[in-house]
Input
Amino acid sequence: MNHDHHNNQHENGSEETSRPLSPWLVGAFMLALCWGGFYLAFNSGGFRQDVYESNAVNWAGGGVAAAAPVDPKVVGKRLYNQNCVVCHQASGMGVAGQFPPLVGSEYVLAEGNMGDNHLVMLVLNGLQGHFMVKGQAYNNAMVPWKQLSDEQIADILTYIRSDWGNNAPPITPDFVAQIRKETASATDSYTQEQLMAMPAMKPAASQGSAPAKK
Amino acid sequence: MHRLPTLLSGIFLVFLTSWLGLVAYPSLQLGRLTPVADADNGGSLPPTYGGQAIAGQRIYATEGCISCHSQQVRQTSITTSDVDRGWGVRPSVARDYLRDSTAFLGSRRLGQDLSNVGVRRPDAKWHFIHLYHPSAVCEGSLMPCFSDLFLVRKIQGQKSDDALNLTGEDAPKDGYEVIPTADAKNLVAYLLSLRHDYPLPEAPVKKNGAAK
Amino acid sequence: MSDHTLPHHQHESGYPPVDSKAIDASVRLPVIILFGNAIHWLVVAALLSLVVSIKLIAPGFLGGISFLNYGRLAPMARDLMLYGWASQAALGAGVWLMARLCGQPLGGGDGQGIGGMLLRTLIISATVLWNLAVLLGTLAIFAGYSTGVEWLEYPGWASAMLLLSFLLIGIWAVLLFDRRSTGRAEVAQWYLVAAFCWFPWVYGTANLLLVWKPIQASAQGPIQSWYCGSLLALWLLPVALASAYALLPRLLGNHLNRRHLATLGFWMLLLLGGWNGMDRLIGGPVPAWMTSAGVVAGVLFLIPLFMISINLLGMVRKRAIVAGSISCRFLLMGLYALITVGVIGAIASLPDVSGAVRFTAFTEAKTQLWILGAISLPLFGLLYESLPQLLGRDCWSPVLSGRHYILTLVGLGMLVTLMLLGGLFTGLALADPTVSFLNITSYSYPFHVMECVAQLLLLIAALILGANITIALAGDYLLNKKTGK
Output
């Protein structure tokens, strides 16, 4: 149809391009884009997958990430299952006569002559020879766990201090780091005597609060 | 803009932005989430579904429950009404849907949100009666009867344990009983397993001290 | 071809100076099959929508029969609207417009000979395949095989059929652009190329990740939202806009006088269109950045819609022409609907508003206005313009066309207004936890009743359109008989 409008096409083209954009439109357009950029920047939570509260965090980080840290007990339990469960069992009861229990253990809970530092030391450097746990005698060796990081050891210890009815304050990674530094020269696993020769650092001293169970 | 390759390249690049931003990147971010250990009982979170509940998901899909029911407690930074209404103790997060084959997020709430229905309504018998005749337990409900998920049959010998305890005009004739089919049982098992009330690293449960 | 004069064709036409008769002949059958089937699916979808809305005021209506439950009928109605009607009409519109604007018969060359015949057979088979997929997919939902993924409820094999059918048709439409004989490309052609390239990508990706080989469900939310937004904004809307860009200058006898604006609008729409579905994620179980991106995308999406609308509406000079052309009136109403969609979308994306009205009828109103307004109205406009040209005669009954126009607008306006108001009330009530949910349900009862009336009007409108096209096509058949064919 309508074969007579060949020219129209060309006129179309030239006229279409002649009108420039209105400066108002361009201005409004840029403003809107700016707003979009800023809004996203301040409400994106750093594009992290674990930040859900859009108004709680900005690019500087912190915020929610600090408010909702990973639960050391959850991580600690996983690490416990990977490293410790073979001897001490999932129940924390150990094996009678061979591997001492962690449930109610004075080593774990830092009761009696024991302190937080003793627990960290024996995990870092191991334990050997004859020792008593909950009035039972054992004669065995625990290997050193130096290869685990401060954080991992802290998580495991925090976990074993809070499960199975145990109720002792958490161990911080900083504390593990401090002990690791202090005992860096130790080359051999401790015996109970060597361990007990060191002054106990009570949870009360290191945590600023009394142990829950006495 | 006048040659196909030029136009196509432009179109391709522009489209790529939303595809990368909304399909590829989220798939990498959220498609690789893993369950976390449950400190309380040695299991993992979110909890796994039982076999019946997995089968029940299919019924949920084919009956189109998603047309009226959402499964998400919204972020409290947007609205607190979901939590205030008791539809959940904390906002839902992506990890909550790990065990689903399809995320039934929903887009309309003609009925109540179901993300925590297993916590809110833990009684299977209630669900059976509600599915059979919603108005019998929820006066004024818009929900249709799913009576074809049930069988009306003659009582043979003793009344079945599964038989619905119906009263009034819903009650079957004397000597008959209403029992749920396997589909109904699966669907209810699925509904009972719907819960987002456990703590996750990115979604701690604040108020409820017991679920620490 | 120039022996017939359409009522509104006294003005100059800018169709490319090519043998439009041969072009129309090459696409006539597939396009008419697509349009005819699209309209019959529209009627079915409107009927189902009415039944669905009746079920909201009388839950027992057609109750107790599993395959007539709300949960099955509602997705059937929505999918028929999307794939049976809108996508199919968009396919027909796209093929016709592309062939016309490129000045090439479908398949290139003169469309004659064995090659041309084979190609036509292939394309006609593809149109049949499309309708078979829609039919079987719908029946599958009916029979309880729905996937439960919103807007992708068809089982995997049905969606694979749809995709295959689209590729068989779409590839020729894109190739037409490369072989065009008309030199400089029009704005409408950009939109068509974009739309035809994107549907396979959008539909294929979404089906792959949600239906065929579902990704871990924690990542499905963003993909669902992306799909819903992209299907509307990157496939259906571009075709509707192509219709407006192609037809309005010719119908109005005017030129598109701001090509810069058209260019900017085009690229902005493409850039933001894919993000536009993100408003479905605001506050949802997704990281904060997705919620925020949803807010930004929902608000910024107003820009391209606004640009495109003022670009096109700027051509309207003589009201008389608009009043005289049903096609023109539909196209312009479609643009007004588009601006409204943009405004509603931007408002509903603001965090506080979204917190209140999301999951209520408010968001449903936006979806309805998208599908039935911004997309369907321009497609109606194109249909009224194209069929007389394809058939080579003035085929529409002016009375029926006028009724269809009025009823569609009244029905749609009523439906959207009611849903917006109803959604607002529900949203405000939901914010108060002391108001029980069942109480809120009873508040919305009057709105649901009025929505039924609106759906009834839309059904009557669809039936009138169906009658109109039936008469138009049957007239063709009778005419052929008389001339002894």
About this structure: Chain A touches chain B at residues 49-56, 68-71, 73-75, 77-78, 90, 159, 163 (CB under 8 Å). DSSP finds eleven helices and two strands in chain A. The beta strands of chain A are 130-133, 136-139.
